[in-house]
Specification:
Rossmann fold, Dna Ligase, domain 1, 4 domains, about 20% strand, 24 helices
């Protein structure tokens, strides 16, 4: 789909310069030195020849139609260059030039105008404000980075060009990272992570896709594409700008609209994307996926010549939810017969500090062959007798013979550098300087396998009366309101067949008494106002009212408090509601609409403490029954739902149904910006929505 970017037969570099201090010179120099076999066309009206290549006044003068044009000129001249490319028929353009969206409103308009020009001529565009791109196998380097990285099975895209230059420099300094593709996305005016994921999913030179992103404007499309691609190849992403301070930095850096931390975590999980918490984790995971077979389960064996690192590795695996493999008796017997008496044939297998390469070879050969072992971490500390390089060869040779992943943890630096080179360059065995990092790589492999193999999402549809919901919203809009209070929200809950307590609206204290007599005591009174969403904050709720006299007193007091604490609020009266039996569990089901991914549904413990405890979990709607059930087990208080101290469990299916119905509601009505049911009272059988608030889009 994007062949013109990565396998172009010819490239025009608009702004190529004979001056070594100019970016246009660096881009052309990289293209020449990368070993590109196609035709290069430097475009510079003031030069006849640059770096041995004939220069042309503009793209129109080039003797063929270039597959790719790279624009490295000041932003005022970029539109003219795009127009020239369009008239020439160039299908792909990389705009390195800055001065667009990241430069403010004027720059934003320049970017919009440039994109219109590109679309007019069916040009696909990377950038602007980017570093350029590299295909290590074509080979082609049209960046202004210093040099070209080694080739390998890792494709990397970055929204930050400066970060990209640092990573390329790092890869060329012996990091043992090899790239198939490298793309600096810049402002993503046209081509984004979505396009590159789709293209790289079909690239036979790429085994794992990495991304550094500052924002994903089309979150729903990203999730859809990532879910498809992740079933073919691992996608590992670092997302910056998820803290409050980070979000502000993103806004000023590339103009991206940062989404919430919770939305990204939920979206990545649902889309099968592995979230890396740091750049270190990003490339650690990449090494594991790129150079080793995929872990089939989570039973890990450790081979070490030092007890301390073995214990650290064991702890790290357990923290990551991984398990230590229980070796077969036959394996233990063979290890015991060969190893010294002081060694340990259990897992971790401790071959002792005086272990030579043959002892490591024997231990690894028999351990990795054990049917209970899915992967092995080999720890080597450089002790006096350690044959470090010979041990590296032993580990590498055995790793080539097995279908199970083997990770190295040769600890140290000065004495083990040659061994790390042997592992990486001759055998493709990644090495990690500390056992915790190796453990996290296996954990990522386990997570990816589970995400990849998860069944396809099956979205349920429940019967609903959408006309009734629309009528409630129309009334609010006609009154100039964006808030929908509890009294009105009852109609929405009924429209989606969510159980609600018996209740009626009373405009006066006497009406409240009449309704309470009809419902039966005890009752609950709640202030009814579209302007007061948090009723308890203003003393707007009274429970366990036993008789008519208490109803009158409660009505007058609640209305008085509401008028005092929220002057000018529209007061409809009080909602008189049946008092539900004790013994229920208060649950929160809510939603806020994330600017990038859409409706983010919240589940957690409800009541007045939800904002203090923040024991909640999230999913991007719509989601299926399996995802809803998973939400129940993700909160810290999940044991309460199962019942504690002899209590019977609460109705999980009723909670799941409520989550799915709210997921459907907020998907059906994109004008719902925010809502919550708090509490949803859950019993051993069934659940009742006691209170709901809702905010609509002001448009």
């Amino acid at each position: 789909m994007l062949e013109s970017f990565f396998q172009p037969k010819s490239v025009a570099i608009i702004g190529a310069s004979p001056n070594p201090d100019k970016l246009g010179h660096a881009v052309l120099k990289n293209a020449v030195e990368s070993g590109y076999k196609g035709n290069l066309y430097p475009i510079n009206p003031k030069a006849d020849e640059i770096l041995g290549w004939k220069a042309y006044k503009d793209v129109q003068d080039v003797p063929e139609v270039p597959d790719l044009a790279v624009v490295v000129i000041p932003y005022p001249y970029v539109p003219e260059a795009i127009e020239d490319c369009g008239k020439k028929g160039v299908p792909a353009v990389v705009v390195i030039s800055a001065g667009f969206r990241e430069a403010g409103m004027e720059g934003m308009q320049r970017e919009v105008d440039m994109l219109k020009l590109a679309k007019k001529y069916n040009i696909r565009l990377i950038g602007p404000n980017c570093l350029g791109l590299i295909d290590a196998f074509t080979p082609l380097n049209v960046t202004f980075a210093a040099g070209s990285p080694p080739s390998g099975p890792i494709a990397f895209m970055s929204q930050s060009g400066a970060l990209g230059t640092a990573i390329l420099d790092w890869s060329m300094a012996g990091s043992r990272i090899g790239f198939s593709k490298f793309v600096s996305l810049g402002n993503k005016a046209d081509i984004s992570e979505i396009d590159l994921m789709q293209a790289w999913a079909e690239d036979d030179k790429t085994k794992v896709i990495l991304s550094y992103s500052e924002g994903l404007p089309d979150g729903q499309k990203f999730m859809q594409v990532a879910r498809e691609v992740s079933r073919k190849k691992p996608i590992v992403m670092v997302k910056s700008g998820v803290t409050a301070a980070g979000s502000r930095a993103v806004s000023s850096h590339t103009g991206s609209l940062a989404g919430s931390e919770q939305a990204y975590a939920a979206a990545f999980r649902q889309a099968g994307v592995l979230r890396a918490e740091s750049m270190q984790d990003l490339f650690d995971y990449a090494l594991g996926f790129a150079y080793q077979p995929l872990l089939k389960s989570d039973r890990i064996a450790i081979i070490t010549n030092a007890g301390g690192p073995g214990i650290l590795c064991t702890d790290a695996l357990e923290r990551a939810g991984m398990g230590l493999a229980r070796l077969e008796p036959e394996t233990t017997k063979k290890l015991t017969e060969f190893l010294p008496n002081a060694a340990s044939a259990a897992n971790p297998v401790d071959v002792l500090g005086d272990a030579l390469a043959d002892r490591y070879r024997y231990a690894l050969e028999h351990t990795v062959s054990d049917p209970n072992v899915d992967g092995v971490i080999v720890i080597v500390t450089p002790q006096a007798m350690t044959e470090i390089e010979a041990t590296a060869h032993a580990v590498g040779e055995i790793s080539k013979k097995t279908s199970k992943p083997v990770l190295g943890c040769f600890m140290g630096e000065f004495r083990i550098n040659a061994a790390i080179d042997i592992l990486a360059e001759q055998y493709g065995v990644p090495n990690f300087p500390f056992p915790e990092r190796a453990a996290r790589v296996f954990s990522a492999m386990r997570d990816y396998r589970e995400l990849r193999d998860a069944p396809s999402t099956l979205i349920e549809r429940f019967p609903s009366d959408n006309a009734k919901v629309q009528a409630v919203f129309a009334k609010a809009k006609s009154e100039g309101r964006v808030t929908v209070g509890d009294a009105e929200s009852r109609e929405i809950l009924k429209a989606y067949n969510l159980r609600i307590p018996q209740a009626e609206l009373a405009a006066t204290a006497e009406e409240a008494v009449t309704i309470a007599d009809k419902i039966g005591y005890p009752v609950v009174l709640k202030i009814a106002s579209p302007d007061i969403l948090h009723k308890t904050d203003v003393g707007g709720v009274k429970v366990n009212i036993q008789n008519a006299s208490e109803v009158r007193d409660a009505f007058d007091l609640i209305v008085y408090r509401a008028q005092r604490y929220v002057p000018g609020a529209l007061i409809w009266g009080c909602l008189v509601q049946e008092m539900l039996p004790k013994g229920g569990l208060e649950i929160l089901v809510g939603m806020n609409r994330d600017p990038q991914f859409g409706p983010l549904v919240t589940f957690g413990m409800g009541g007045i403490y939800v904002e203090v405890l923040k024991d909640v979990t999230f999913r991007v709607a719509p989601f299926d029954r399996k995802a809803a059930m998973e939400m129940l087990s993700e909160i810290r208080a999940h044991a309460l739902i199962d019942g504690v101290r002899g209590q019977k469990p609460y109705d999980k299916e009723a909670i799941v149904d409520a989550l799915l119905k709210i997921s459907q509601l907020v998907t059906d009505f994109p004008n719902i910006v925010e809502m919550d049911i708090n509490p949803l009272m859950v019993y051993e059988q069934g659940a009742v929505a006691l209170d709901m608030r809702l905010v609509l889009d002001a448009k």
